Every structure is written in C-alpha cells, then in structure tokens.
Amino acid sequence: MAATAPSTAHDTPTIEAQIRTKLGTNECRRLRKAGKLPAVVYGHQQDPVHISFDAKTINDLLHSHVRVLDVRTDDGKSEHCLVKELQWNHLGNKIVHLDMTRIDINERVTVEVELTFVGDAVGLKTAGAFMEHPATSLEIECLASQIPDAIKVDVSGMNVDEAISAAEVTLPEGMTLVSDGELVVASIAIAVAEPEPEEEGDGSEPEVIGGKKDEDGASE
User: Fold this and answer.
1) What tens digit of pLDDT does each residue of 168-204 get?
2) Distance set, CA 27 to CA 32, 54, 57, 58, 75 (Å)
3) Pairing mode, strands 68-73 and 14-19
C-alpha cells in the first residue's frame, strides 16, 4: 500500500499580535469575551512572550491547516512561529489557548499531520466488511517551509483482513517518519454477528403438582 503527500511550500501568512502584560485566568476570560485568543510563544533560548490574536483571524488560519506563521507583535518585532499545541474548551468545540514555538523557517521540525483516505477499497464490496482507522494522523519531520496540509493514503487496493501501517505510507523526499512504523492507519475486517442470547428462566425448580410435601409445606 502507498500514499502520497503534497510537498508544495506555502507562503508563510503574517498575523498581527498584541503583547499581553496582564496574565491570569480572569484576564484570559476577558480577552476571549473581547474576541481575542490568548497565546504564548516559547523557544530558541528566549523568554516566553504572552500575546493575543484576533480570534477569528487565527481560527480561520488554523482551520486552513496553517502551521507556521509570521507573528508580528505591536512592539515592532517579527518572528516565525510554529503552532505546537491547541487547548480546547471542555466541549472540545472551541480553541481557548494557543502555544507556539519560535523557529527558523529553514530548520527541520517535528509535526503531526492529518491523514486523508482516498479511493474505494475493493474489500468493502464484501458483505459485512468495514474499514477502521486506528490512527488518523502521523508525526513526521520535515523543513518548516515544507509542512504538508495532509497526507493522502490510497486505500483502493485494500482487501479484507489487510492493513496499512505507517511505514507503508510514502512520504515526499526530505520528509521522514517519526511515528512508530508499525502503527496501523487503516484496516478492513468482516463484522461478526453476535448470537442472540438464549432465554433463561428464573432458576427456580418447578413445583410438582400433587407431590409429597415435607413438614414445612414444601414439595419434596
């Protein structure tokens, strides 16, 4: 089995950020209510910088799979940053905080990239067959300027009882796999119908009509 991933370099989007001098939970809540997203920039042996973005602008970029940003703060500084971690609310439907790390655009970075499964697997034509995706992303190492939006995995040649492992996914030149090569990303199996449970009685013995009774009145 094989897969291909786009290797086209992306222009690094520029985004404006405001330096935060007030910290704490209450201040972060205030920023979110004002349409801002709190964030922190780490790395390159520099002190962390607490910033905030316009929430709609940063969310649009993140939903477009942008991973590297040219962050320009209101003190006139500009630096390339890699999105490292998104923190979600308790419902998992809204980003509430963003962690970023400073990078050189030409350095190699380790990132997690989503998998996109394409093709109609021949094995799914078998009655009762279904496909599972134990893993929907892979961790790879590549140039910061060459992070792909997604990795396409062609499943059209898969049959029943076959699987595609991470090691079988073909990455573009210059990218290397960091995830465990034995990690299964797709497999096809046959659903096994569970037998219907047998009806069980209440476990009591039937009373023998007309049977001889003991001194307590119970049938023997």
Assistant:
1) 998 888 899 999 999 999 999 998 766 666 666 555 5
2) 9, 15, 20, 19, 20
3) parallel
Whether pTM > 0.85 for this model: the answer is no
What is the spatial distance between Cα 127 and Cα 124, in angstroms, rounded to a whole number?
A: 8
Kindly state whether residues 136 and 184 are assigned to the same domain.
Answer: yes
Secondary structure E strands in the chain: 3-4, 14-19, 36-42, 49-54, 68-73, 78-88, 95-102, 108-118, 129-132, 137-143, 151-154, 163-165, 176-177, 184-190
Q: Is residue 204 part of a domain?
A: no
Shared-domain flag, residues 122 and 89: no
SS3 call for 62: helix
Residue with tokens 């219907």: 196
* Residue range of the domain that includes 52: 10-103
Residue 25 lies in a domain: yes
> Which token pair is 75?
């003190």
CATH number at residue 186: 2.170.120.20
Domain contains 213: no
* pLDDT per residue as tens digits for the range 50-98: 999 999 999 999 888 888 999 999 999 999 999 998 999 888 888 999 9
Residue pointed to by tokens 């006139």: 76
